[in-house]
Amino acid sequence: MSGAGGRTPSRRRLRRWVIGLSVLSAASLLMVGGVLGYWYLYLLAPAGNPFDRGPFLVGLGERSAALAWSLPGHRTVRLLAVSPAGQVVVANGGAFSRLTPGTRYAWTASIDGTGRASGSFQTAPINLTQPVTFAVIGDYGAGNAQEWAVMRTVTAEDPAIVLSAGDNSYLLSLPQLLDRNIFQPLHDLMASARLWATEGEHDLFLRDGAYTTEALHLPGTGGRYVTGYGPIQIVALGLQADAGAIPFARQALAEPGYQARLILVHRPIQPGNPILPVLHSAHVIAIFAGHLHRYERRMVGGVEEFTVGTSGEGPGAAQFTRASPDAAISIENYGSLHVVLSARQAAYAYVDMTGNVLDRFTEPLPPA
After folding, report:
1. If we measure between CA atoms, which residue out of 156, 215, 165 comes closest to residue 189?
2. Element (H, E) at 32
3. In DSSP terms, which residues pair with 299 in a beta bridge?
């Protein structure tokens, strides 16, 4: 005779086992769902940088600034900048206008209402009563640990602009190498400082430097152009100060309205070069060069010249790394040059890749 409801003990045990299994399965599903929800809300890392390249500064003036970027697809980027006083400026196609001179702005790039990149920029001052800080690098584009280390120290110095003396990408300036050699190691730096570069042999080997020129949004061709940052004029001569550079430099240096004039060239200008009287008579305060994988400071034709070929690639063969006999200092340590220009003087400091200052030099600023 069967039990209550006609169920045998074995059938009752089966029913209890099915009910228990169902409860356990439901609890397991709830637990798994809870873990996944917690993982998604609290543990899952946010999406990475959506930009292939940048945003990075490509223009910087007294009242304007511009950024460029590379972004897959057709997503809209909203770019705004905020001054220390709370002034909010929205960019039009990456370009800011109506900015205040000599002011550090913080910028943010947003996609779909979420900030996905940020940086800052320093608009140019009207004159050098407000000092300008900038950095000089050269022969850096190797994509190695030393380049990354140098760029960290440069970024920490918070320069308004950065000057490169060329050889921005080794062994060649190929588009496939530029992210590894330039845009990744210099990502944070180029988000806060405009990079003005001339071009060396490694840049010029293909298409006469067009790959470097286009990627860095440089004017001119072959690293030869004239630009400025407020009261500072920058005359880039390209590979070397050859005969063709003399009329170019003479015309550029005749432009009025600058308190300080700088020369940027890849190969150091040697004593006796006929361009030196042109530079000296125009009161050029400094020549910045690379090519030689050393840091050197020396006087050539009455103009102070700094060779900064030490920002990443390394010394190389001994015949290409010989010290100049007339150099006041010549060292092979990886590093960059930190410069502060004020109304009265130019102050230089060579900083190695660990942050140590290995050379200091100060000179009065010549008349405008």
Report:
1. 156
2. helix 9-38
3. 304
- How far apart, in whole angstroms, are the C-alpha atoms of residue 237 and residue 123? 25
> What Å distances lie between residue 157 and 62, 225, 358, CA to CA?
21, 26, 15
The two counts, helices (H) then strands (E), for the chain are: 8, 20
Residue found under tokens 């439901």: 26
Give the separation between CA 170 and CA 198, rounded to whole angstroms. 15
For residue 202, give the nearest of 167, 162, 153, 158 by alpha carbon: 167
CA separation, residue 148 to residues 54, 181, 202, 213 (Å)? 17, 10, 19, 22
pLDDT tens track, the chain, 368 positions: 444 455 677 777 777 777 777 777 777 777 767 666 665 656 666 667 899 999 999 999 999 999 999 999 889 999 999 999 999 999 999 999 999 999 999 999 999 999 999 999 999 999 999 999 999 999 999 999 999 999 999 999 999 999 999 999 999 999 999 999 999 999 999 999 999 999 999 999 999 999 999 999 999 999 999 999 999 999 999 999 999 999 999 999 999 999 999 999 999 999 999 999 999 999 999 999 999 999 999 999 999 999 999 999 988 777 778 999 999 999 999 999 999 999 999 999 999 999 999 999 999 997 66
Residue 273 dihedral angles phi and psi, to the nearest 5°: -65, 130
> pTM for the full model?
0.89
